[in-house]
Write a structure and sequence with these properties.
CATH architecture: 3-Layer(aba) Sandwich
Strand content: 5-15%
CATH superfamily: NAD(P)-binding Rossmann-like Domain
Largest sheet: 7 strands, parallel
Helix content: 25-40%
Order of helices and strands: EHEHEHEHEHEHHE
Oligomer: single chain
Number of strands: 7
Bound molecules: beta-D-glucopyranose
Length: 279
């Protein structure tokens, strides 16, 4: 038995989101970028939300457009109600409606608890949790106004809340971040329960360690990578495309009966790998 695992898969996505309109927050880098591109590859028109780095956002837009769908970038801070409302108004003016929201924008402001400033706390809660609330609320208003359009999707709309394994795994030194993700989980489930009768599907994705700029320190050196692998039974880091494939599936009618669930995409990180040999 070998303990090395294969590389991440590469395969093209079926175009099962043709005609749908999607908005992805925090889509200029990392997981958001990969999700936005995959939704475009699957046939959706995509709004690329971002808050900094116009050039990176423009590149994502161009890549999405190369798949023959419409895309544009919209700069907005998801923690600001006025900016979020303007972003959705702009999308509805430009694309007519919204079918898929991927509430993904998130960040870390790590600190030992006794040193954590109120600003570090509020920034993380504001963007990661309140940002998802504001975006989900605007998307929901449009879903309820429009209802199901059978030619487009079985559902009146889909919301994907990007969470983390840290909605479940406590994380010392990251209490603000873990709290935001625990909150996302309960907001997602409560909202899913509330709006399922309207045929709106709300689900979460909980990525584990994914190779993105948010966690460079966890994988950039061989030593760091080896340490990280002790936490990942599948013995490879996740790639943004691992999350993107899950997002396309959860946004599509292929997952039509999946409601209020968090899909963990984590290489087994939540299996408590320390217990493989301990306990
Ligand atoms: C965090 C990463 C971390 C991963 C696994 C993610 O939610 O943003 O920094 O590597 O969880 O711990």
């Amino acid at each position: 038995m070998t303990l090395t695992s294969p590389a991440a898969p590469t395969r093209s996505t079926p175009r099962n989101l043709a005609g749908q309109k999607a908005l992805v927050t925090g889509a200029n880098s990392g997981i958001g970028r990969a999700v936005a591109i995959a939704l475009g590859q699957a046939g959706a028109d995509v709004v690329v939300n971002y808050v900094a780095e116009d050039e990176a956002a423009a590149q994502v837009v161009a890549e999405i457009q190369s798949h023959g769908v419409a895309a544009y970038g919209h700069k907005a801070d998801v923690s600001r109600e006025d900016e979020v409302r303007a972003m959705f108004a702009g999308m509805i003016a430009q694309f007519g409606t919204i079918d898929i929201l991927v509430a993904n924008a998130g960040l870390q402001r790590d600190a030992a608890f006794q040193q954590m400033t109120l600003e570090q706390w509020n920034t993380v809660i504001g963007i990661n949790l309140t940002g998802q609330f504001l975006c989900a609320r605007e998307a929901l208003r449009e879903f309820l106004r429009r209802g199901v359009v059978a030619a487009v999707s079985c559902a009146a709309g889909k919301i994907l809340c990007m969470s983390s394994v840290h909605q479940e795994i406590p994380w010392a030194g990251h209490a603000n971040y873990a709290t935001s993700k625990g909150g996302i989980m309960m907001m997602m489930r409560s909202l899913a329960q509330e709006v399922a009768p309207h045929h709106v599907r709300v689900n979460g994705i909980a990525p584990g360690a994914i190779r993105t700029p948010i966690n460079t320190d966890a994988w950039k050196t061989a030593e760091a990578y080896a340490g990280l692998m002790k936490l990942v039974p599948y013995r490879r880091i996740g790639e943004p495309e691992d999350i993107a494939r899950a997002a396309v599936w959860l946004a599509s009618d292929e997952s039509d009966y999946v409601v209020g669930t968090t899909l963990f995409v984590d290489g087994g990180m939540t299996l408590y790998p320390g217990f493989a040999t301990g306990g």
